[in-house]
Specification:
This protein has one domain: 3-Layer(aba) Sandwich (UDP-N-acetylmuramoyl-L-alanine:D-glutamate ligase), CATH 3.40.1190.20. The protein has 9 helices and 13 strands. Helix 6 links the parallel strand 10 and strand 11. The longest helix is centred in the C-terminal third of the chain and has 15 residues. The protein is globular, with a radius of gyration of 18 Å. The C terminus is likely disordered. Keywords: Kinase, Transferase.
């Protein structure tokens, strides 16, 4: 079958309502005046990975469940406006949504509405199989119903990646994703011993590379048994929001991997893409382009070029 898709992104479509707050944690008060406004925009983890890959020139297709509701319309419009192919499976419970509280220093607290999915949700197996077989790579979000699609994806023989986000290394829900993917991303946020968790992923699964992002401290790459620190890239402007930085890192890394780059250089691409994402306000959906990314890695001491 012709592989006319570079990356199929599975899951993670939804909308976020952004609220800029004076500080986090937010002290209790009867009310707060939000002068910056409260805005709802399309873009959750799968949307941002798809956006990042597409901005880098990768042929990208996104598959997920969406509701027939205003939130779903926002997601469909985002993909249409950015030229990203989208296959939307009807979701009677409605489109996934969250509220993000963002502090002045760019930190985020997310409140996820779990009523918009159910354990028995399924993506149609024939659709998953056909799109996987037409793809060079599949990036799998850990949202429902992607867990049920993992066996079909593995049978297809396509390369897989996943992002475990703030996994604590113990929650069993994440293990199927961690031990099935060839490339695993996660955050160090909830890990007491990141290296131990990373090595366990390799030992129990099939990962060729594990990347643990650590915010301003950079990231850690485990490949071929060697753990390497990847320094953070200087952002091209003020850090206004960390939302989407991990998704941008994944997109940058996969761009390098699918272009035959070594894992360390892939991680540098990821660091540059993540740094750029931190300068994009939560209320917007933006991603670094191919030329800017290549320039950032060619001259890492100068950080990410300004757009």
């Amino acid at each position: 079958m012709s592989q006319d898709i570079d990356v199929l992104v599975l899951g993670g479509a939804g909308v976020d309502t952004i609220v800029y707050v004076p500080e986090l944690p937010l002290p209790y008060a009867d009310s707060y005046m939000i002068d910056s406004g409260i805005r709802t925009r399309a873009g959750q983890t799968g949307d941002f990975v798809a956006l990042g890959l597409s901005a880098l020139g990768m042929r990208t297709h996104h598959l997920d469940m969406l509701g027939d509701d205003p939130a779903g319309d926002l997601v469909r419009a985002l993909h249409r406006d950015r030229g990203i192919a989208l296959t939307a499976v009807p979701q009677p419970a409605g489109t996934k949504r969250a509220v993000n509280l963002v502090s002045p220093d760019g930190r985020r607290l997310s409140l996820y509405d779990t009523s918009r999915s159910h354990p028995d949700d399924r993506l149609p197996e024939p659709t998953v199989r056909a799109l996987a077989e037409a793809s060079r790579h599949v990036h799998v979000s850990i949202t429902q119903p992607c867990a049920h699609a993992l066996p079909v994806l593995r049978e297809s023989g396509v390369g897989l990646s996943t992002d475990l986000h703030n996994w604590d290394g113990e929650n069993p829900y994440h293990e199927a994703f961690a031990y099935t993917a060839d490339v695993v991303f996660l955050s160090t946020t909830a890990l007491s011993d990141p290296e131990r968790t990373m090595r366990r992923i390799v030992e129990r699964g099939r990962a060729e590379a594990v990347v643990a992002t650590a915010g301003a401290e950079g990231a850690y790459l485990l490949t071929d048994g060697e753990l390497t620190h990847i320094p953070a890239v200087t952002p091209p402007g003020p850090v206004v929001d960390s939302n989407g930085a991990g998704d941008a890192f994944a997109a940058g890394f996969l761009f390098g991997r699918l272009n035959g780059e070594a894992p360390h250089r892939c991680a540098l691409y990821g660091a540059a893409a993540g740094a750029y994402a931190c300068t994009v306000p939560s209320t917007q959906a933006g991603a670094i382009g191919r030329d800017a990314l290549l320039a950032a890695v060619a001259e890492p001491a100068q950080g990410v070029p300004r757009p």
